[in-house]
Structure formats: C-alpha cells, structure tokens
Write a structure and sequence with these properties.
2 copies of one chain form a homodimer. Chain A is an alpha/beta fold. Chain A is built from 10 helices and 9 strands. The longest helix of chain A is centred in the C-terminal third of the chain and has 27 residues. Chain A binds a DNA duplex (30 and 30 nucleotides) through helix 4.
Chain lengths: 231, 231
DNA sequence: TAAAAATCGATAAAAATTTATTGCTTTAAA
DNA sequence: TTTAAAGCAATAAATTTTTATCGATTTTTA
C-alpha cells in the first residue's frame, strides 16, 4: 500500500458491520410475516431456521439494535420491528428524488416496499421531452433543469440515480450542488462525491457474477462426477 | 449451533471468496474503458487508483483468474478481459428465461449490459393476458403455462424471477420442474431449491439499509460536531 | 552498464466476520 | 418443588477477507 492509497476515502465512519446491516431487512420481512400470522414472540432459533441462517448470527445481528430478549421465549416481535426500523432510520420518512425515468427508474418508483423503509420519492427528473410533464406511478416527472430548485424548496435528502453511466457523474454533481446528502446509485460507475455526501452503489452485475461462478462450479462438479462414473 | 443448523444447505461449493467475485465485474468495466481509450496494459496500481481500491487487493482478486502480469508493466488488458470473462463463464452465451414481465422484469430485459455477460434472455413469461403475446424490448412474452415446454425445448439454463413475493416459490418450483439449473431471484423471499440447482438473490433493500445506516451516521456525526461548536 | 524505480507474486500479519462455547435465566414438565 | 429444556448474552475460537511486507523481475534512467 503506497502513500496515495492510504488517503483513499472509503466509508463514512463504518460503525456497524456491513454484512450485518444487509441482513436486517431480511429479519424485518420475516418478522412482519410473523406479525401477519398473529405470532407475538420469536426466538433466534426460529428466525434462523426460517431464513436459513444460524441462531448465533441472528442474535448478534439483532443485538446491534439494542433489543433485549428473554431466555426460552425470544424477542417481542412488535418491539423488535420497531427497534430495527428506528436503528435504520426507517421509522421516519426521508424525502428523495429520482433522476432517470427509464425502465429501471420506473421499476424503483413502482416498488411499494421502499415506502415501508421510509423512502418517499417525491419526484422524478429526466431530459426526455416525452416524459417531462407526465406521471410514472403517480410520481410527477420534471425537467432535469428544475432539479436544483426542487431539491432546495422541498428539502430533499436522498437522490436516486437511474441514468446511463455516461451521465451519472454529471447528475451526481447536480445533486450535490443542489444539496442532496445521500446518493443511491444504480449506474455501474463509481461516483465522486464530496466527503459530506454518502453514496451507495447497487451493482447488479456483482450478483450475476456470483451466480455465474456458482453455475460454473456446479457444471464442473458434474463433469467431474460424470468422469468418475466412467472409470 | 445445534444439530439441525449444521445441515443447512448454504453454498454450492464455495471455492472463491464472494467479495472478490463481486469485484470482478468492476474490473471488467474499467478494463473495457481502458480498451476504448486505446490503452494496452494496466497495472494493479492504476486499476486500484481508478476504482478507489488498493493495489494488493486488485492483484489478489485478479490472480483468481490465473493471469500473469509483468513487473513494472502490469497486465495485458485484452488478455485480462478474456481471463475474467472465461473465469466467470461470460465468454459463452447462457440461455435464460424471465418470469414476471412487470416493471422490474422490463428493466432487466432492457439492460444491455447483461448480454455482454453471456446472458441471453430468450423469452419472458407472465400470467397477465394483456402482456401475453406482446414483446418487451424485442423479447416475446408467453403464458406461464408454456414455461415448462419452452425450457425443455430450448435447453434453458437460467431462470430470472421478477414476480411478486407471494408467487415466487411457485414460479421457482415450476422452473425447477422444467429443468432450470440456476435461478436469479429478484424477489425478497428465500427460495427453496433442490441441491442440484443454484440460486442467487438480489436484495435491493440490503443496499438501502447500508445507505440508511450511512445517512444516520452522517447526521449523528453532524449533530455531535454542531454541539461541540456550541460549547 | 549499473543503479533506480515500479510492480508482480508469494507470504505473513492484521482486521473483520462468522461460528462455537459457556454460564445464566426463564419456562415448562415431572 | 425439583429437574430438564430452550434460548439469551457474553466471550472465545475459528474462519474469511483485507492489508502489509519482502524478494525477484522488468524497465527506465543515469
């Protein structure tokens, strides 16, 4: 590691293990499922079983939220849900805008789940004249030129980027200039943001790489076993 | 960890570190960028710098593919691209079907990048009469009833699931029955698949959880600093 | 042609994450 | 009322992943 590399800006104060954070929504969904089924308490053993994990991991993950469980019984589901939601800040609505009203943008606007996560997408922006003035899933689409004004007037915190990679940095700069504090990036490029803005990039290809590797392993394994049979 | 937990089916022969696998598409994109710029060689130092990583990590990741670099020079870009692609099996097309021709399904069908990753989505399936018979981004949409026949006749390997969570397991079972060997799941539920089928789930909420945590940390940090100023 | 600089490859160390262990507490059953 | 079982909490161990170090190799410069 050379001197320059040591100064790379990586995470905004890490705090909690990222793998644990990523499992929280999993727990949340399962807990809400229990709620619908009328169950009131859940143990780590039960949760782990239903999610294909192991109990200690669940226990450790949940302990991030400060919840206290009772031996032989488990956690109170309602309380646990509240704890997780407030831990993630999902108990209060955070206003967002989305730039890039294409297919992917539309899919995100259409995903009702995010509302439950405190994400309130107030408006979409695009440069396509055919889209400007319309609504996508009851979210108005405005001209990108109006982004800055809108963000300022409506105190928007989060910006979602669903534009082609060629313009992703441009859009980012506009968002930062307008006062956006957090960027959820669906384009595959690494965005440059100042240190007072946080950014999280969704890499759909990463997930496909993992699947591809599994497929390769599976096929290789089968070839090997096939050969063994021949011998 | 109890006895039951020890038998949980987790990964299909792990093999390579998942974080490393997930970074490969990142390298690939950057390398293709170099190609477009007419560059022929790249060192880990350079790649790391451009991606915000450190050189040793890049070197270790790339070593998975068996590439050999030259000191003081780096790797031949064309060769490295080939290595990564063949390592992931992206050098040959793998046929896929997609079930759930909604907004998210449409977005995936529309993402040209996957074609470069050897993913050839041959057909989409849905239960909506209005969609059946149409084409989404030049991909025909058929009735879900025809899934099994289509998969068998066309030797489809990969199934992509973009249906509501309530029917995700149902669709999975259909896919498995039809002979699908790998499932790329965009629904938030854990799918039950037999051990000869691999599965990878994309959790968009996970990414949002990480962003949310960063936002919380950022705001907390600012409050703290604000208080310090007052004192 | 020798010395210096860059960087690879391999190995070692450190850090992060997962899993195991232990003791204590609560509930339920004998 | 005692005993057994389940499960939380905390701590320790193991594993995985990241980062550092070192010697060797190639290129460039003096």
């Amino acid at each position: 590691m050379n001197k320059a590399e040591k100064n790379v800006h990586r995470d905004y104060k890490k705090g909690y293990p990222s793998p644990s954070l990523q499992r929280l929504p999993l727990y949340l969904r399962q807990l809400k499922q229990y709620q619908r089924e009328g169950v009131e308490k859940a143990s780590c053993t039960r949760i782990a079983q239903d999610l294909g994990l192991i109990s200690v991991q669940v226990r450790k993950d949940l302990s991030m939220t400060g919840i206290a469980g009772r031996p032989k019984v488990g956690y109170n589901i309602d309380e646990l849900i509240n704890r997780i939601e407030s831990f993630l800040g999902w108990d209060k609505q955070r206003k967002a805008v989305l730039v890039g009203a294409g297919a992917l943008g539309g899919a995100i606007l259409g995903y009702a789940g995010f509302v439950e996560h405190g994400l309130s997408i107030c408006a979409a922006f695009d440069v396509d004249e055919n889209k400007i003035g319309t609504s996508i899933r009851s979210c108005p689409v405005y001209s990108l030129d109006e982004l800055e004004k809108f963000v300022e007037q409506n105190q928007i915190v989060i910006g979602i980027i669903t534009v082609p990679q060629s313009v992703a940095q441009l859009v980012t700069d506009k968002m930062v200039k307008a006062g956006i504090r957090a960027i959820w990036n669906y384009s595959p490029v690494r965005l440059n943001v100042p240190s007072n803005v946080v950014c999280e990039t969704v890499q759909l290809s990463s997930s496909f790489a993992v699947l591809s590797s599994k497929v390769k392993n599976m096929l290789a394994e089968e070839r090997k076993n096939g050969e063994q049979l021949k011998e």
